[in-house]
Amino acid sequence: MPKLMIVVGSVREGRIALPIAEWIKRTAEADGRFEIDFADLAEIALPLMDEPNHPRARQYTKPHTKEWSARVEAADAFVFAFPEYNFSYGAAIKNALDYLSIEWDRKPVAFVNWGGNSGGTRAQTALRPVVTALGMVSTHGSVEMNMPFGQVDENGVFTPTEQQAEVLASQLDELLALDQALRPLRPQA
Questions:
Q1: Phi/psi of residue 71, nearest 5 degrees
Q2: pLDDT by residue (tens digit) across 81-126?
């Protein structure tokens, strides 16, 4: 069973990212085709890149980098859940991506993003070249939400629209297909 890492891409207090990522997790668990690794960047708390060697060398010196490397290496596919900040994605995602290199290579990625009127599209557009440079392959569809704050109830539970649920289900199908296609092309550790 492939391992799906759900990356919570916002670290700020009061973030809507957590309820949205928990919806993704519930959906993927109910799907039953993935083992789930829920990677909350706020909990992981990687410091600003502090390794002395280039990530391609994989000569990590810090325990937090070695732990992050092992988690990403073990993952077969990813869903990044993230908001748009100032026409882009947040620094926590960039930092988490930049810590590593080969661990991301030839693995599929899907995006669930949100923002104001743009639905987070500009953040997704900014992130795509970064994941492509790391050798990741993104799904065709993505969940883009305009101001989803009203979709979180008083208990902190996110309820998707029918379209959002359909697109996420389609992404899971594509992640599975891409994982099977890309697996033989992945670099061996």
A1: -65, -45
A2: 999 999 999 999 999 999 999 999 999 999 999 999 999 999 999 9
Q: Which of 81, 80, 74 is nearest to 35 (CA)?
A: 74
Residue entry with tokens 């061996």: 188
H or E stretch covering 15:
none
Q: Model's pTM, two decimal places?
A: 0.97
Identify the CA nearest to 94 among candidates 57, 54, 145, 129.
129
Report the DSSP pairing between strands 35-40 and 137-138: unpaired
Closest CA to 161 of 16, 4, 61, 23: 23
Nearest to 112 by CA among 53, 166, 176: 166
Copy the structure tokens of residue 159. Answer: 């309820």
Residue 43 neighbours by CB distance under 10 Å: 9
Q: Looking at the domain 3-185, which fold is it?
A: Rossmann fold (3.40.50)
Give residue 42's identity as a one-letter amino acid code.
A
Buried b (16+ CB within 10 A) or exposed e, 56-90: eebebeeeebeebbebbeebbbbbbbbbbeeeebb
